[in-house]
Amino acid sequence: MKMTRMGDLESVFAKARKQARQSGQPVLAVVSLPWSGADPMALYQRLDAAGVDCLYWETREPQRVLLGIGQALECVPDPDSGLTGLQHRWRRLNDDAVVEGAEVARAIGGLRFDRTANQQWPWQCFPAACLTVPRLLLECTARGSYLICHKLVRQDDDPVTESHRYRRDIETLLSSEQAVLSSPPASTLVREQGIGARQWQAKAEALIDAIRAGRLSKVVLARHLHQTYSAPLSAAAVLCRLRDADPCSHLFAVHRGGLCFLGATPERLVRVHHGRVETHALAGTIRRGDNAEDDQRLGEQLLASDKDQHEHELVVQAIRDALRPLLDELTISPEPVLHRLPLMQHLSTRIEGRIAAGSGVLDLVQAMQPTPAVAGYPRHEALACIRVHERFDRGWYAGPLGWIDGAGNGDFVVALRSALISGKECHLFAGCGLVGDSEPEHEYGETSLKLSCMCRALVSDRT
Ligand SMILES: C=C(O[C@@H]1C=C(C(=O)O)C=C[C@H]1O)C(=O)O
User: Does the keyword Cytoplasm apply (predicted)?
Assistant: First the structure.
């Protein structure tokens, strides 16, 4: 990492200030420097241990790791124009940005599952929607590693002082690489609160009856577990275990106000790369087998299940209908395939296309979310049932989480297989799709299987 390149920061900030004075508006300055420092997970572990609020993101296909530190700007949609308005503001901000180096600006964040429902415990620190442009963003992809400095430059900012501040922050980051990482204390589960199996199954039964009566076609009923551990949980240690346990899922960790929402999700909501749109419908679940033969049999059973095919098809249709007005081309694979995870397998249908001129990633997120994979169908009726029957705040669980850049690219996942941790306390969430042929007991087992991915990663004394 060459600190001599810091001279660039001062001249870029000066240029941005000049522009800000001319336009009377703050201007985003973006400076990217090649990074040869520590790997982002190693840095994330150190930042987490030091209690620094940061953001971690990792997708394995394509390989991309983002580590955001600090906050240059927080982008929040306003109630009237929603994500579409935010999309326009982001585009304008980037059109006017002063950019130096190989990379453009990037914002990372998420949305609540149900933005109309009231924010409740334990989600008070997680707003309805927010995308953060970090002060410093470490980005590692197959193309190389960069440290991106973002600053919203105002008319009266002093470029010299400000560039020194960034220089100091980068030096602190570089020196934190040297910090010795002591292993977090072993934590064991001491208490667990959550809805009992019988009570959950009674709710599922009532919803299945509503589906059979024709009031809706599908609803996703979730469970919330509140666990207490013997020692404070380390978000970075949990994320490392999730990463080791599953080589394919997308990892995320968002720290806010002393809490951390993290997970390893198999579900991508939508990715836009140079105008190409990629998504999948993911719904229909069965466990993995005890051996190859058993696994194969279970996979075939899932593919042949009318109930799972129906549950899955509702998701394919809803995604198609949401995307059609926003895409120029749309291709849907004719049949679902198995999406295999360490503990379970899902049905997955690939959906691809090309984004129409004038639309952006956030427009796609707005149109798609929440899909019937996490809410149900029709959406309005499903959300109404969820509000009445679940009786807890899903917060950011099952909501979209991801990033957008200044070049029109973006990637959002559905924040599943996740937990909200705060010291020794942990909140876990998992749900499953109910249709007319569902059996409550079986569905309860499915939510337990989904919860077990995170439960395994939370305990530190496991080998
Ligand atoms: C709702 C969850 O998962 C969703 C529901 C699925 C199902 O019902 O088969 C499968 C994958 C996800 O789309 C969850 O993991 O909490």
Answer: no
